[in-house]
Design brief:
The complex is a heterodimer of chains A (about 200) and B (about 170).
Chain A (H helix, E strand, L loop, with lengths): L2 H49 L2 H17 L10 H19 L8 H8 L7 H19 L3 H10 L6 H8 L3 H25 L1
Chain B lengths: L1 H22 L7 H15 L17 H26 L47 H12 L3 H13 L8
The chains are: A mainly alpha (about 200), B mainly alpha (about 170).
């Protein structure tokens, strides 16, 4: 092969590789857009259940997808994308929760009254329901972190105990034992507050 | 006790119902669009491992012809450049012996020695002291004996001069 032919074939290979990379990039962007449209709602609910603030939850979802964007080259290697995304947003939320410890607490009752569905309720009933939910959530906040996390995730119908274990990074038996402890503690807390009233 | 357990159970179920309500909350309107817009903005700053320059697109029908023309142009530029470089520079000539200039620097306008001769600095040997003359008669005798070409006499005189130099003042 002459030098000219070698240069020509090398140039052809470079051009074809550029075309392939461009096609791959477009495919990755399309896959990412599909993930956003499919799972952004789920991720938002996971984030909101912990942060209990709409703006913070939306920020957490966006941050989670930015992390996905950084690893978009390895998207095809992920087996369960839903669980993978929930785990990412869970880590983001936990980081934010840790940082928010020093911040003043938001008015959960007003936020809950605005957010939670209250169709067919009067204004007083709605306010009472919001207060009840706020009281329950305050008790949840008093649980130890490990038990609280498992209890929050168990409320999601999409997640079974195996998936909760994968999100938190523990074994399934640990999930069950933590959930058992969380329920007992929760019952004790609710009973205690009821007796105080 | 049973009532207490029933209360506890209802309390837990109420608590779980609250958590389930939270878990079923609908996402706010336009969340997906906002996330997509945020990602589009972030994609400009977040770069993958390597970035490729975009090559200008070539129409499919003329691709081979255009590529051939481009390759020929590149080859012509490379060959032309090489030829220009080779034509400008001559091949290196073999090295010649350099003749040293003659020493007469004054003829070429440089400094001259002005007739100075170099004398090497050597150690002075023992200086033979000249014999002092006490009496003219002895002196003439001595000079006469010295003037004689016989080696014996000269040897004797030398001994005399070295061993017993005549002092200028009489003893």
């Amino acid at each position: 092969m002459s030098a000219g032919q070698a240069v020509f074939s090398g140039w052809m290979e470079i051009a074809e590789k550029a075309v392939q990379d461009e096609a791959r990039r477009q495919a990755e962007e399309a896959a990412l857009a599909a993930l956003v449209s499919q799972y952004s709602g789920t991720l938002y609910r996971v984030a909101y259940s912990v942060l209990r603030n709409a703006a913070d939850a939306e920020d957490a979802v966006q941050e989670a997808f930015v992390r996905v964007l950084r690893h978009r080259n390895s998207l095809h290697e992920v087996r369960d994308q839903r669980l993978w995304l929930i785990r990412i947003v869970w880590n983001v939320v936990m980081d934010r929760k840790r940082r928010m410890k020093t911040r003043p607490e938001t008015d959960d009752v007003a936020e809950l009254a605005r957010v939670l569905p209250a169709t067919g309720l009067s204004a007083e009933e709605r306010a009472a329901a919001a207060q009840h939910h706020a009281h329950v959530l305050a008790c949840v906040e008093r649980l130890p972190a490990k038990e609280r996390q498992v209890l929050l995730l168990s409320a999601f119908e999409e997640l079974n105990s195996v998936e909760i274990a994968a999100v938190v990074g523990i074994t399934e038996s640990s999930v069950r034992s933590r959930l058992f402890r969380a329920r007992n503690l929760m019952a004790g807390l609710l009973e205690h507050t009821r007796s105080l009233r | 006790m049973k009532t207490g357990n029933r209360d506890q159970g209802s309390g837990i179920s109420q608590a779980e119902e609250t958590l389930r309500l939270l878990a079923r909350l609908p996402a706010p309107e336009g969340l997906e669009e906002r996330v997509q817009a945020h990602l589009a903005a972030a994609a400009k700053t977040v770069s993958p491992k390597a970035r490729l320059l975009r090559w200008p697109a070539v129409p499919q029908g003329q691709s081979s012809l255009a590529r051939l023309a481009a390759a020929a142009a590149i080859a012509a530029v490379v060959v032309g450049g090489g030829w220009v470089v080779c034509s400008r520079f001559q091949p290196a000539q073999p090295a010649q012996a350099v003749t040293a200039p003659p020493h007469g620097a004054a003829q070429q306008g440089g400094f001259s020695r002005a007739g100075a001769m170099r004398t090497p600095q050597t150690l002075n040997g023992p200086v033979v002291a000249a014999p002092a003359v006490a009496h003219p008669a002895n002196a003439t005798q001595t000079t006469q004996s010295v003037a004689q070409p016989e080696p014996k006499t000269l040897h004797r005189v030398k001994h005399t001069a070295t061993r017993e130099p005549i002092s200028p003042t009489p003893r």
